[in-house]
Amino acid sequence: AGMAIDLPPPLGEPAQVEQALSVVRAGGNGDGAQQWSLNLDGDLRAIGLLQPAGAGAPASWRGLSVAVGPAALPSPGVGMHANVDLPVLDVDAWSRALASATSADSPASASAGTGTAAGTPRKAGAAASSPNSWMPTALAMRVSRLTLDGRVFDDVVLGATRSGSLWQSNLRSNQLDGAVNWRMGVGDSPGSVSARLTHLHLPKSSDNDVEHLLDDRPRSLPAIDLQASDVDIHGHHFDSLRLQAVNRGRGNARQWLLNDVRLSSPDAVLTASGDWVPTARAAGAPHRMSLGFRLDVLDAGSLLARLGKPGLLKGGKGTLQGTLSWLGSPLSLDYPSLSGQFSLALGKGQFLKADQGISKLLGVLSLQSLPRRLTLNFSDVFSSGFAFDKVGADVQLLDGVATTKDFKMNGLTATVFIDGSADLAHETQDLYVVVVPDINAGSASLAYALINPAIGLGTFIAQLIAREPLMKALTYGYRITGTWAKPEVTPQRDPHPPATGASAPLD
Questions:
Q1: Own/partner pairs for 449-458, CB < 8 Å, 24+ apart?
Q2: What's the alpha-carbon Rg for the chain, to the nearest Å?
Q3: Residue stretches of the chain with pLDDT short of 50
Q4: Cα(first)–Cα(last) distance of the chain, in Å?
Q5: Which of 156, 160, 271, 302 stands 20 to 30 A from 366 (CA)?
Q6: Which residues are CB-contacts of 507 (< 8 A; sequence separation ≥ 6)?
Q7: Nearest C-alpha neighbor of 45 from the set 37, 36, 53
Q8: 152-156 long-range contacts, Cβ below 8 Å, gap at least 24?
């Protein structure tokens, strides 16, 4: 009573709280070792064999067993064995406490680390030692809520052994399940983590934790070799994830290199590589994610449904590839800063009847909101959803604005061309759409053959009309503006796109 223990829970104690402490030293055996046992109010129990100092050697523990909480106390063996059973454990708080203990070797620190009689409380701290001297060689842990590197893990069950700087463990929690090996860093080396997981869950709330890792600990972020199945990212399920990344650079100018990323589902396979680096050397500077990627799509409609946008598309097989960069977390696109370019090539699909507002970009291409041209049977073309044989486009991105001048979609009933831009951050568009209906199977074939992305949509329309004057009467233009939720569609008498404005090509 009257003595405070300045340690994190469950061993911390304010001065006004009374705790029962029992320390027992048993007689030495034939080799002079002494058995010590400790019980701190049932929260901490320990038993170990202490070899006294002698012949120039310091006193040392030959074996030490520790139990925290209601966990069973292991029998003493070689090294330190620990069993932990707690409702809450903050590993970050314990790391700070042990790091503080290693610097408590000055007279001032020593005097602050002792207790006094009741009525004059002081704080008791640990003696100076290396952080590794506190690490067990075998660890069994059951924790309902564990905090590590700012992230919270629920219902954690861990079994781990340590040999030097290498930890080998089996870990189960609500967030991940599998085998994890951790080689602790030495000197300037940040160490490495190798994980083979049967389950991995990365909720939206984890984005800030990931982004802060390089900000808070740029030198100590380890290399990662991760393979996981049954992956959940932001509530979207995938079959597997492979990630290989390393931490490179000097001092605070670190960069996180993603050497290999592969994310797969039955609908598509994403492969990528890139880096995540600070935008400036100043502390706290935001990081920019740069990525080169290829998405092999097996079923575009199913993929969109997996990503939370169902009912927009049926079928569709092809590729999407290019480069992207954005500010912030590698796990979440930041649309206002999104820049780069990509190419789309997709075949055999159909746009379905869907709310225009549920898709970032594809919703405005369903063409359901275009006025019906009954004389050309446009009601049948668009009311049931446009079926296409091939979709292709090159898209440029700058600060969240996507611009294309060569979007082309070929179907049995019409060929559609789009020139203009869509603002991904504000969900608006300024597009010019040209529809060439297939009358007697002639015009669509002609449109399919004539298009050349290099010449632009206006030049193409002029060539089409020059070759087939009848096309001028059959080809229609539409200006689409407004928001994705409420697009404004204006028919244009002249199918040529305007020479100026947001729909002009962006070179």
A1: 451/406, 451/408, 451/417, 453/394, 453/405, 453/406, 456/405, 456/406, 456/419, 456/505, 457/405, 457/406, 457/417, 457/418, 457/419, 457/432, 457/497, 457/505, 458/419, 458/496, 458/497, 458/499
A2: 33
A3: 105-131, 354-383, 439-445, 448-451, 500-507
A4: 77
A5: 271
A6: none
A7: 37
A8: none
